[in-house]
Design goal:
Shape: globular
Radius of gyration: 20 Å
Structural class: alpha/beta
Largest sheet: 8 strands, parallel, barrel
Order of helices and strands: HHEHEHHHEHHEHEHEHHEHEHHHH
Number of helices: 17
Strand content: 5-15%
Length: 331
């Protein structure tokens, strides 16, 4: 085969979409519960959370999933109906994506290690009942509190893989890695929001505090050989995404996936194991006291973690109200 001229290769690269270029360096994940969107952008994985499921369940096309969950749990609690509904969404998503789906534990369990473990086991059992290979295809999402991290540590030992979400501090990331968590989701955009609000500054690309946070975590993990995967999340613009090209995974909302798919801007790898190995960063180890001190020394992380838990809990309550009303009407 004749060798492609450099200028021809550059031309083809320039003509390919930013999304297709990004997929060369990073596993792209769809941050949505909408099946049509997932089909359109063909990510490897998909993530859901209470807010996304609440949004989806209010659409007419997803009403049959709710109706079936109610029928299958006639006479049972609203909690059991919701668990069945979450697994119904996850199972349908797994018919579309070749990889994994993340399903979130109730945010009200964020400070309850035993409760989180019990709920994760229950969700896993429902997936297994549906014929899903949970070790390969399911991640249980848990808030990155100390209690959540310790729950994930136990669950990982049982073969239930976890996605630690609402992660804002370096302390959270280190504790997750030391606990053997499969994957973390640092919230890039919400870190950006806090700093913009508190400084009045706009941040672009590698100057973005959210981008810097994920870059530091990625470099630390790779330098010290941690197997925990880094998945940047909660983006505000495509600049944040492209500044993290090379991260293990990036979970991206439908509107930003669309922007990337329509853009032909050249994409370069920004994060890589070899550059991580050369970074000047020291290894630390965290017990509970050290973790709590470091995490609580970061005002942004404390505020955004608490805010995120409250927000997911509020949307969980709205979902409960919708399901309760629908179940009453079906009775």
């Amino acid at each position: 085969m004749p060798r492609m001229h450099t200028h021809s290769a550059a031309f083809i690269r320039q003509m390919s979409t930013a999304l297709s270029q990004l997929k060369q360096f990073t596993t792209v994940v769809a941050d949505t519960g909408d099946f049509a969107t997932i089909k359109e952008f063909q990510p490897r994985d998909a993530t859901t959370n209470p807010s996304l499921i609440l949004k989806a369940v209010q659409k007419a096309e997803y009403r049959p999933l709710l109706d079936k969950a109610i029928r299958d749990n006639k006479g049972r609690s609203t909690t059991e109906i919701i668990d069945t509904l979450l697994i119904a969404f996850g199972t349908e998503i797994l018919k579309i994506v070749p990889g994994r789906v993340s399903t979130e534990v109730d945010a009200t369990l964020s400070f309850d290690t035993a409760g989180t473990i019990a709920k994760a086991r229950a969700l896993t059992a429902l997936y297994q009942k549906a014929g899903i290979d949970t070790r390969e295809r399911v991640l249980i999402k848990i808030a990155s509190t100390w209690e959540g991290i310790k729950a994930a540590e136990q669950l990982e030992k049982e073969g239930i893989h976890c996605n630690l979400t609402l992660l804002f501090s370096f302390a959270q990331a280190v504790a997750c890695a030391e606990s053997g968590v499969r994957l973390i989701s640092p919230f890039v955009g919400r870190i950006y929001d806090w700093h913009k609000k508190n400084t009045g500054k706009e941040y672009v690309g590698t100057e973005d505090p959210g981008v810097q946070s994920v870059t530091k975590i990625y470099n630390y993990y790779k330098k010290f050989g941690y197997k925990t995967e880094v998945m940047g999340a909660s983006f505000r613009n495509t600049g944040e995404i492209l500044a993290l090209a090379g991260s293990d995974l990036l979970t991206i909302s439908p509107n930003l996936l669309d922007e990337l798919n329509k853009s032909n801007v050249p994409v370069s790898r920004m994060l890589a194991p070899d550059t991580a190995a050369a970074t000047d960063i020291s290894k630390i180890s965290l017990d509970e006291k050290t973790y709590r001190w470091l995490h609580n020394s970061d005002a942004m992380a404390v505020e955004k973690t608490a805010e995120g838990i409250r927000s997911f809990a509020a949307d969980g309550a709205k979902l409960t109200a919708i399901v309760t009303e629908a179940a009453a009407l079906a009775a």
